Amino acid sequence: MTAMPARDVFASAAHGFAALVRQIPAARWDDAGLGEWSVRDLVGHTSRSLVTVSTYLRAPASRKDVADAVGYYVWVRDYMASADAAAIVERGRQAARDLGADPVATIDALVTKVLGELDAVDGDPLIEVIGGQGIRLSSYLPTRTFELAVHGLDIARAVGLDVTPPVDVLADAAALAARIGVALGTGPTLLLALTGRTGLPAGFSVV
């Protein structure tokens, strides 16, 4: 099977996220979402995977600091180790407030905006992302696909919807998770768990 271009898979993830948001029952937006976030906060946080692409497209980088999507997550893991957890929670809540009175319409508009901006981009530019790191657009987009897939599942679970991301998105995200695990030295643990030999340790995560 030929791998789909990163832009196409990201577009599939963005449309899948918008479709999921349309299905959230009106009475469930203030329910518990993930950790300290409500469902609305979690949707707001997830929407940042659209907002950051739009923002970083306007931030060209002069050098490549991160080789690929795996390298991005390995770097972010260290970068976030010293991050202010309260500030991260608050960014999610601010993103929720930014959704406004009609979060469904806001998400639909964000998807249209960012995909239109991507269509206007020629080639594979270097962009500057979190922490001032330079990375190719084609390497950054899979990280946003990953976030949309994982948090899409979080949202669906929180509101009791039997909805999963599109197959191409799941395949891309699962493969990236496995590659991150290998890069972090937990490849054997992942492989044994995925083939039914053992279970994953409590609290195990590649991000």
UniProtKB/TrEMBL annotation:
Annotated transmembrane regions: none
Alphabetical list of InterPro entries matching this protein: DinB/YfiT-like, Maleyloyr_isom, MDMPI_metal-binding
GO molecular function per UniProt: metal ion binding
One Pfam entry name: MDMPI_N
UniProt domain Mycothiol-dependent maleylpyruvate isomerase metal-binding: residue ranges: 11-156
Highest taxon, organism lineage: Bacteria
Protein name: Mycothiol-dependent maleylpyruvate isomerase metal-binding domain-containing protein
